Amino acid sequence: CVFPNSILFPLQTDNQNNLAALVSGLDAVVVDRASSEWLEEILILIENEILKVKEAAMDPLTSEYNGSFFSDFISHLGWQEDAHLVLVESLPQARSAKAAFKHVQRTAGLIKEYNRFSFPFFHLGQSVFALVITDRNHEFTKSFCLALTSFIRNSGGRRGHVGFSSFDSHRHGHEASEKICQKIVDEAWHALHKASTRGPFAFCDYDLLANPNHFPLQ
Length: 218
Description:
Largest sheet: 6 strands, mixed
Strand order of the largest sheet: 4-6-7-5-8-9
Helix content: 40-55%
């Protein structure tokens, strides 16, 4: 579709969703003289560039977002109240590389199946996964993590650990966004490590490590 100073290119997708790229700010003469052959060539170039960007962000083993895109995503998230980072670990007890690969793929499939809210989902490598939850409160995230741990166990997993950290204005204050982001990542890793010491299936909320008085049985 051609408009004054802009062109709308329809794009093909694997899941049949309607998607288009709007190229605006063009010289009106270029738009007016654009031939259908030239537009088709430009469309192919756009699709190829989008595919390159997508492939760079995808983990080839699980077909989910990779660790590189995870770093970029969370650094631009704009952490604020009701934003949470969930880390999931399900280390394989495999005796071969093939079995380990299958374990990672199966675990990714389980988490994707459980992730009915379609929260951004990443494979960080070594069977460690991340979910970024926004616009949900702290209690929702606790229930989400507890249920995820149970889901992995009930689905036949041999182990599953979940740790998460939430943005907290009292704990994180108003520091630079990069520092806040790194703190939340470090806290989530610490919570995941703590969960891994509590048995084959467990989850840990970093808030309880930072504030033991928040523990229900205190």
